[in-house]
Amino acid sequence: MAMTTDIRTPAPQRPRTGSAAPPGPGPRRGRLRTLWGSTIGKKAVMAVTGLLMLAYLLVHMLGNLKVFFGPEDMNGYAHWLRTLGEPLLRYGWFLWIARAVLLAAVVLHGVSAYQLSRRDLAARPVGYRHRRRGSSYATRTMRWGGIILALFLVWHVLDLTTGTVNPRGQEGHPYENIVAGFRTWYANVIYLVAMLAVGLHIRHGFWSAAQTLGVTRPGTARLLKAGATVLAAAITAGFVSVPVGVMTGVVN
Amino acid sequence: MNLTLRIWRQPDAESPGEMRTYEVEDISPDMSFLEMLDTLNETLLTRGEEPVAFDHDCREGICGACGMVINGAAHGPERTTTCQLHMRHFADGDTVDVEPWRAAAFPVVRDLVVDRSAFDRVIGAGGYITAPTGAAPEAHATAVPKPAADAAFTHAECIGCGACVAACPNGSAMLFTSAKVNHLAALPQGAPERETRVLDMVAQMDAEGFGGCTLTGECATACPKGIPMPSIAAMNREYLRATAKR
């Protein structure tokens, strides 16, 4: 049998078909454009901004528990947040920086979610006769849950930041505003629904972020899922304890 | 056993399709699902009707040609390919819905046949190693550590049937692409093109109109070869690493 000696040299150019990303002009610019332009990159943006908001929520929840130590503790803590970073920062600057970072995170998270969802829905235009339910409730409610949370954010800022819709709405007195707010039935309903939504969102979001950022390995998948459940339950329980405290009279 | 089948019939890509009902009698529980469809097609031919078109080749679960959604599940109720699904998993008198893979990137060609050439283009974008062809090289010329060989083989098991895309509510090809990327990334032969491979394959995957991953896990549940969910995390890791390095 004759040995073939036809050894081809490698093709000089890799085939680039479709809208495969062309090499960017500068390494950094091309890198960001590649990330934002791909489904994986956009999901990574969602993961990073989501984890940032999650870290904030954890601190926010722990801070809220100050309400159980009385008005002086709570209002003192709120005042301290404004003096944080002094004298490097001026009074209140730390809060404004935090707000700017969080707003950027919310916008990037939301825009990525919207764009990816549009893409996902277009990728499966026709459904099947049978609806398989292999995914969890938390997974299926990510999109609507996110919309509920975005609407809640607007309410929450108007309620306890600007005081516009708060029955008391007195600046510098968060303790009194919280108590006054949670004495109305609607504030409780809105808050409880939103806190359940945030729990579900974290339940799927935390372990999704780990998977998206490539942290998950075959051995750690179960651990990360359990971590997501614990984190979601702790954050929801911590936030819910405040209106429950007001309703039961522990906080007044 | 006797079954009532409701099958998606569509004469060609442009025409609208519909579910049509057929009664199939005297089915042996030892038949495969495809043999059962063969039986139906023989009856249809004798009646002068068009047989149901479906893809198939090896019929031993290793080629990835066959595939249809049976009662809402890609490849049906068992974790195997449609050709290896046996009728003993159905009960006499059952009504079974049979539909083609549904995804924007997999247009229906006819009845249960879809065009999966999007997968070929994803492979063409980087799912290979650049090496001189010719006579097969000596198998031990490049040493491969056992864990790397095992990892590569787990992913090399992917037969490209498309069940992952069909099962995914987003029509995402992440599991398929991750199997191909991880297969070659685990091997020394794949190392020279490690970064460009994942960047180009993901770019092509996106360009084909597949959706993104929302981690529902439907793909890994449907995969007849058991490609696991963490494969997607591994590809994400490869992608982010390649983006940082380029």
From TrEMBL, chain A:
UniProt-listed InterPro entries: Cytochrome_b-558 (IPR011138), SQR/QFR_C/D (IPR034804)
Presence of the UniProt keyword Membrane in the record: yes
UniProt region (Disordered), positions on chain: 1-30
This protein's UniProt keywords: Membrane, Transmembrane, Transmembrane helix
Transmembrane regions listed in the UniProt entry: 44-63, 93-116, 137-158, 185-202, 223-246
GO cellular component assignments: membrane
Entry-linked NCBIfam families: sdhC_b558_fam
Protein name: Succinate dehydrogenase / fumarate reductase cytochrome b subunit
UniProtKB/TrEMBL annotation, chain B:
Keyword annotations of the record: Iron, Iron-sulfur, Metal-binding
An annotated GO BP: respiratory electron transport chain
Cofactor requirement: [2Fe-2S] cluster; [3Fe-4S] cluster
Signal peptide: none
Iron among keywords: yes
Molecular function via GO: 2 iron, 2 sulfur cluster binding; electron transfer activity; metal ion binding
Domain 2Fe-2S ferredoxin-type positions: 1-102
The UniProt record lists the keyword Iron-sulfur: yes
Segments forming domain 4Fe-4S ferredoxin-type: 149-179
Pfam families assigned to the protein according to its UniProt record, in alphabetical order: Fer2_3, Fer4_8
Family membership: Belongs to the succinate dehydrogenase/fumarate reductase iron-sulfur protein family.
Protein known as: Succinate dehydrogenase / fumarate reductase iron-sulfur subunit
Lineage of the organism: Bacteria, Bacillati, Actinomycetota, Actinomycetes, Kitasatosporales
